[in-house]
Amino acid sequence: MAFTSGCNHPSFTLPWRTLLPYLVALHLLHPGSAQLTVVAPSLRVTANVGQDVVLRCHLSPRKDARNLDIRWILQRSSGIVHAYRNGVDLEQMEEYEGRTELLRDGLSDGNLDLLITAVTSSDSGSYSCVVQDGDAYADAVVELEVSDPNSMIILYWTVALAVIVTLLVGSFVIIAFLHRKKAAHSRELKRKDAALGSYAANLKTLASKLNRIADEVEDCNLGLKRDCEKMRSGVADLKEVAAKLEKHSEEMGTRATSC
Fold first, then answer.
1. How much is the pTM?
2. Taking the CB of residue 244, how many other CB atoms lie within 10 A of it?
3. Which of 22, 27, 161, 256 would suit a FRET pair with 13, their CA atoms being 20 to 30 Å apart?
4. In 3D, which of 168, 48, 173 has the Cα closest to residue 160?
């Protein structure tokens, strides 16, 4: 007599095939196997320093999130910005203590929005919204950019100040260069003036010597004139003596003839 065992027996085939859809449905309805999806806006969230900002995300399909494990994590440091589990807020990063709040009014509708108050520039970055329900896990990323208008003003003033300092330094260098050039030119003029003064003094000395020589020549001429006059007077006297001698000679000749 043949014997067939297991699920291949004809008596077991129909009941297992009939129960299979129900088993799959039970598996899908098991709390730990529910599929989770977190949806976040694609646009970056922007704010100024000191403002309050809300980072938004929600479950899809929407469901009550009050009994889920919800965490907001700063990606660059993997630090917990805010943690919530079964209605209780858990420990978080020191930088965010007293500045975050999970908006619980929207949890029942699947909203997982996080409020951050008095944001600072260091709050800029990527935030992960993480949800866990048993074995099910889902997350989404929200980008936050915090601007500091005062820092931009300071930056503009810093640039302006740098330009002004550059202009002042450039002006100082140019003025110093012109001053040195003027001083060098002044020294050159003084040197030339001193040379001209020395040349003038030499000319004055030479003129004085020439004047003295001219005076000596003039004195010499006067002496020569006096000597000439004396010689002329002596010549006249000699002529007069010669004339007298000639006359006396003639007289003596006449007397000799008569004798």
1. 0.50
2. 10
3. 27
4. 168
